[in-house]
Amino acid sequence: MIKKIILWIKLVFKMEMELKEKKEFLKQEFLEVYKDKYKLINDFDLGEGCYAFVFLCKDIQRDIDVAVKLFFDGVPEEGTKRGLKITSTFIHNQIAPTYTVEPFYSKNLKINCIAVVQKFVPGRSMKQINKHFDLIENEPHFQKVLNDFALTYVNSLLEVICFCHSQGFGHGDLHSGNIIAFIEEDPIKFPIRAILIDFDNSSFKSETIDLSEKAKMENDIGLFKYFFSHSFHQWKYYDPIIEMFRDYNNISEYKLSYSIVSKFIDLILNNKTSANDFVQLLTTLPHPMMGFHIPHTIKCLQSIAQIDNLTTNLQTAIDLYIQKIKNENNWNSTLTIEYLDHDVTEVYRKMFN
User: Which residues bind ATP (predicted)?
Assistant: First the structure.
């Protein structure tokens, strides 16, 4: 038994050394071919997956930092064209764009290879952030950190997923390793922004290669709930919010409902908890007759209010809100238009084929 374990350890070590050697060969071959275009910034890889690794370079001509992805087999797995098309076509500040694809020949692999050159996002994946969460879970400021991420980052993530779905495509592999957390120096909307990467990874797995975009969008919903559960299960307000996500059916509903809930929590954290404060928030909901099912959101607010002993003030606000919405001039149509925007997008997509 001991001999088998030793042999297994030697085999694993040999495979790791061979992979390390292959990576170094590929990197040097790429840099030699494009020595006038890209300069290696450091020897540390930005990341590594099952199929590829990424390192940091300087684009000499444009004087910007770029992330260069090389594939262990020289070329990417099946499905990469989808990811490259998405990240090259759709312009959004929460989707890491692909700048170009550079071909080169590898003498070591004896095949034509490609390198994918993408925008460098100086953030951390939520997989890495979750490890930090584990390290500070017993610290007194842990809930404050979860508040910051939950009230800014999650809203940001829902916004970019909603954008993708409104354009007719899903991410398909929405796990914590493919979602980057990026802190804004001068935040316009969200101090902690979510950046999506690696749309093509979802197409590598045999069970997802043939999935339609509709199926990928449906997958995103389940994967988002899993991500939220894994990252925020220790958050003070986790239980009522995950229940709300289970009650709704699509990302547009998640986005709208969560924006209201997160604003409600923000009011609580800033000690703005009067019935008047709450009713002003409730009047930003779309009118019930416009198709958005408000009760799930209200139920979530009630559960949160119960946690912070604010049930009476919220109920007073709800009663006032019910009186207000009886008059059509009292409700805000802005969010309703935003909520219905996905349907409008579908109309325009069919109109312009």
Answer: 69
Cα-Cα-Cα-Cα dihedral of 320, 321, 324, 328, to 10°? -170
Within the chain, all domains assigned CATH 3.30.200.20 are found at 23-119
CA distance 286 to 340: 10
Q: What is the pLDDT of residue 339?
A: 45
Q: Which residues pair with 181 in a beta bridge?
A: 124, 194
Decide if pLDDT at 300 tops 90: yes
Query: Which positions ≥6 away from 133 have C-beta within 8 Å?
Result: 142, 145, 146, 231, 234
The encoded tokens of residue 351 equal: 């109109």
Q: Is the entire prediction scored with pTM above 0.70?
A: yes
Sign of the dihedral through C-alpha 261, 262, 267, 270? positive
3-state secondary structure of 261: helix
Whether 77 contacts 205, CB under 8 Å: no
Per-residue buried b or exposed e for 246-264, using 16+ beta carbons within 10 Å of the residue's own CB? eebeebbbbbbbbbbbbeb
Sign of CA dihedral 307, 313, 319, 322: negative
Binding residue numbers for ATP: 69
Find out whether 203 and 209 touch, Cβ atoms under 8 Å: yes
What's the rounded mean pLDDT across residues 220-232?
96
- Read off the pLDDT of residues 15-50 as tens digits, 9 standing for 90 and up: 565 667 888 999 999 999 999 999 999 888 888 877
How far apart CA 316 and CA 248 sit, in angstroms, is 25
Please state the φ and ψ torsions of residue 99, each to the nearest 5 degrees.
-80, -45
Is the predicted pLDDT of residue 341 greater than 70, yes or no? no
Query: Taking 90 as the threshold, does the pLDDT of residue 266 lie above it?
Result: yes
Q: What is the mean pLDDT of residues 125-145?
A: 93
Summarize the annotated binding site as residue ranges: 69
Residues 63 and 86: their CA atoms lie apart, in Å, by 25
Fold of 23-119: Phosphorylase Kinase; domain 1 (3.30.200)
Strands 179-183 and 124-125: antiparallel
Provide the H-helix boundaries in 125-250.
126-136, 142-148, 154-166, 213-232, 238-247
Give the side-chain half-sphere CA count within 13 A for 279: 17
